[in-house]
Amino acid sequence: MPNTGFRQAALHSLIERVVKNTPVIDIHTHLYAPAFGNLLLWGIDELLVYHYLVAEGLRCATIPYDRFWQLSKSEQAEIIWKELFQERSPISEACRGVLTVLHRLGLDAKERDLPALRDWFNQWSPGAYVDHCMELAGVRTLYMTNSPFDEEERPIWEAGFEPDERFRTALRIDPLLTDWPKTALRLIDWGYNVGEGISAPTLSEVRRFLRDWTTRMNARYLMVSLPPDFRYPAHTEAAELIEGAVLPHCRDHGLPFALMLGVKRAVNPRLRLAGDGVGRSDLQSLQNLCAAFPENKFLVTVLSRENQHELAVLARKFRNLHPFGCWWFTNIPHLIEDITRMRIELLGLSFTAQHSDARVLDQIIYKWDHTRQVLIKVLYDKYADLVASGWEPTATEIERDVHELLGGAFERFCAC
Length: 416
Ligand code: RAT
Ligand code: ZN
Known about the structure:
This protein is an alpha/beta fold. It is 54% helix and 9% strand. The longest helix has 26 residues, at 363-388.
């Protein structure tokens, strides 16, 4: 057919335009609205000391871990810059991310001039910089990770502030489920009458705590990350708290519960935040939860590559399960491509393709840029397959579908 090449090019540029222009709902980040002051991180030094880069930089550097942590942030950034950008090419995904950010901001990283980069960032005010980054990244709304257990964050909530509609809240409850004995003492301090064991009165007080913080934060979902050895059902505090407090609370408020499965915390504690690892989770436990609680909604991402296929198959079986994102160690182009292709082939459009997990504001630029590049490739193949089967997707249909993958399906799942 003479015009096949032309039609393929037209399809490709249509998909490219749609994917680049569709605004994103970033459903999981570690960013904060400007009202949170210093908790909102941004700028070149923060980009360089991102824990993804620290883990890579300290593989190359010879400085003892403890000495590294004693340095100021800018000294740490200089070590990472030297090790990963000057002494070898910045070829890893996390390093490439820094370059994409600088490039999209209009800065010339190839000058290799760290002081000049710092000067550029110093001209910005946080408010204006948030607008700039969100616009460049094409992010419409983003979800923060909000923890009442965080000593810096809690007082800000208690004091109150003017909400920023673009920054939504997710109530993060890891310490409640992963370290009950210590958390029980904190709840007692805050006026909740809980006991050491998981009894009915304790569960009801935990529900009161969850209610108070859901209301205070206007939380849109609850969230936890769990280690590979998490099991449900089980005679563990985590399983009993989930069943007796978290899930009933979510049902009462119509909120999803987000499970991030497969993180092994502090595999190397000397690396601090950079020291967490991965392990394969038991998705039978997730199946048990989805089956036992059809009135609950589960947003789920898994850290282990080996769990990805099982998660997608499970989502075919349970409409109360919504897979999302390529999390952390899977947020690298070749796995994003693999996982997204597989999810589309098994689930169509009923999942959320990505979340940024950005900890530093500027990172939304590269995380979304890189994901969009992969999505264009995958979607082009998928729509070209449809064309080859005699189906012609319209531009409006492709726009609708991409919106679905970049937040639309998530909103529908939360609302239903
Ligand atoms: O991706 C990350 O930055 C990790 O450190 C974790 O924060 C992870 O995303 C999580 O939310 O537990
Ligand atoms: Zn995260």
